[in-house]
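User: What would this chain look like folded?
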Amino acid sequence: MTDLLTQDSLNIDIRQEASLDDFKSKGFRPILDAIDKMTEGSLRELFIVGGYGFGKTHLANAIHDYYTKRTGRMAISLHLDELIEQDPHATALVGLEMFDLIIIDDLQLVRHSYEWQEGLFHLINRIREHQKQILYLADNPARELQIGLLDLHTRLSLAPMLTLPTHDDVEDRKILLDTILKKKNWRLPDEILDYLLQEGPRNAGDINTVLKHITPLLTRLSRVQIPKKTITEAKNIILRETFMLEIIEHEDLHS
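Assistant: Here's the prediction, encoded as structure tokens.
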């Protein structure tokens, strides 16, 4: 019997798999156009905004890969959730102007550290002096980041800003879901796939959470015959988990 779900046994780091091909939906078109301008050198700074779970870190890794391969120039990607606690004095920012492109993910976290705010402000000045490029990714626009250093707030506000799509468009969402399933090497029954597409979450992080919950139902099932009871149970799980994720998101927004 062939499993309904198949999955590669290799544990491959997602950063190695990141590709701009994962962002083919029309909602990403303005961002992809801006990235092309960065590779051409006609755009020096870019600020990308997107909520949790909408793929900012995956996009940052994909841009790094695309930029270095397309231009042959040097780029570095910093994920501040990993750095600020480990490096409270922001020494990691020293000398980064040697790179052609600096990508800073989770920028919103600098609000927790005045040292990082100062370090980033001086880095931006050095980048401009050396005519290098910088890309920011954050949960909110610069004006909403609650940054105490006014000069840094001003610098960040000057960068052109684009927002990640929320996948409200069903075609955008289908491309996202197809990409997630392809990376997992999974095939879902059409009825469950359509239901997840219509009634499930809108972002990649939450979609993966829901898939994790329905996986036990579908493992070891034949592709030929899927019990109606299993399909109904999978639909109920999709509804329940999507609802719970929406509650959590609402609580986070008002906390």
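Residues 229 and 235 are 10 Å apart (CA to CA). If you want, I can go into more detail on any region.
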